[in-house]
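FAQ: What does the model actually see?

It sees only this:
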Amino acid sequence: MYDKQTVRELIRLYLVTDRPLALGRDLEWVVSEAVKGGVTLVQLREKDLSTKAFVELARRLKATLEPYGVPLLINDRVDVALASGADGVHIGQSDMEYADARRLLGPDKLIGLSVESIDDAVRANSLDLDYIAASPVYLTSTKTDTAAALGLEGLGRIASISRHPVVGIGGMNLTTAADVVAAGADGIAVVSGIMSADDPCKASARLIDVMRG
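And it is asked to produce this:
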């Protein structure tokens, strides 16, 4: 298991990939530029690739990130994480149970869990997770299968009761980042604000600056 302070640093600026939002640009290029700008953790999210193509992409992205020391997580797919040598997984409320994911991945991999309510966060306290993602803080067009927006108040309540580091996701951008951190989140998970940025490096650096205040 990672210690909590290390995880808080890793989730400070958390990039969730979305290839269509890269606007035709190479995914590995967008990710590497984002990391140069300050991204601290990358989650590879793919819903439409075959398992073979998903594993191959994950291996390439893992190789891209290794020189920077930035971990790679796989969304949902424990099998892809294992096959590609990724650093862990992020799971949702309807994905594989945490206990099964931990048993398969072992004690040294990162595992994060999405929580969509106070009740979810309370239940998460009984699990030896590495972090939770409060989702969604604001409604967003990049992920439509989520619960109602938590808002800053809901995020703050989750952060106050969670024994795990907390990252906010959903509508994270230059306008919202500082308020989300002020509400108690340890970091923000960004999709379109980096994936679709003209300059992913500069976009990441500006987000880091905003969170520093």
